[in-house]
Amino acid sequence: QKEVEQDPGPLSVPEGAIVSLNCTYSNSAFQYFMWYRQYSRKGPELLMYTYSSGNKEDGRFTAQVDKSSKYISLFIRDSQPSDSATYLCAMTRAGAGSYQLTFGKGTKLSVIP
Amino acid sequence: EAGVAQSPRYKIIEKRQSVAFWCNPISGHATLYWYQQILGQGPKLLIQFQNNGVVDDSQLPKDRFSAERLKGVDSTLKIQPAKLEDSAVYLCASSFGWRRGGGRGSYEQYFGPGTRLTVT
User: For labelling alongside A105, which of A2, A92, A113, B88 has CA 20 to 30 A away?
Assistant: First the structure.
């Protein structure tokens, strides 16, 4: 079993739809959870981060972490064509000296106008 | 603020040849990472530097890959000899690194555009 599982999609939705992206993980030591967005032929950029369990909202984006289920989600409201990208979940243990990220495979999202 | 710079952006080589990639991190970032991203996969960490010292190179195939970070700034990643399975995007990332109290500044990694390597 891989440490982080993410459905690669592709996921295609109409403009304005609510998008739900998910990851599961197996390592209970993970405490920081992130979502990166990667446009084609670009490097990933940090979109959202959450420490431990709970919800975090930033504009149209909401990140949720359920540590009891080892499950994280990213919701995108009122999706736009500019949201078309690959979304990577990533997570790391808290520990002195290092914050190495373990990534999921990424989910490719297309928002159709 | 200038981002992470990488060169070249694209490279095509034949198997058994050698290749080198260069990375210039964001000014002031102590930690530098090299990742390998195979098509359809998430980035996989190859090596992590803190200043000019190696923190973790456990996933670096040391029989063919090497990396250095001279003077704690720029870094180069080399592959010699290349294999077909090395075809991937090589991403460099940097961060402020670990700081007491943690926080986003410690773990937020800024990625460069990557070098797309094709081995034929």
Answer: A113
What tens digit of pLDDT does each residue of B67-105 get? 999 888 999 999 999 999 999 999 999 988 765 555 666
CA B77, CA B92: separation in Å to the nearest integer?
Answer: 10
Shortest distance, CA A103 to any CA of chain B (angstroms): 5
User: Which of A23, A35, A39, A99 to mutate: most B Cβ within 10 Å?
Assistant: A99
**Does B93 sit within 8 Å of A43, measured CB to CB?**
yes
Q: Which structure tokens are listed for B77?
A: 């990643």
Q: For residues A104 and B110, give the distance between their C-alpha atoms in angstroms, rounded to a whole number.
A: 17
Within the 43-82 window of chain B, which residues sit less than 8 Å (CB to CB) from chain A?
A: 43-45, 48, 50, 55-56
Q: pLDDT tens digits, residue range A45-65?
A: 999 988 888 899 999 999 999
CB contact under 8 A, A41 and B102: no
For residues A106 and A8, is the Cβ–Cβ distance under 8 A? Answer: yes
Looking only at the bridges linking them, the beta strands covering B115-119 and B10-13 are parallel
Compute the Cα dihedral for A61, A57, B25, A104 and give only its sign. negative
d(CA B1, CA A20): 32
Q: Is B114 on the interface with A (CB under 8 A)?
A: yes
Q: Which member of B43, B95, B116 has the closest CB to residue A103?
A: B43
Which amino acid type is present at position B27? S
Residue A24 phi/psi, 5-degree rounding, is: -120, 155
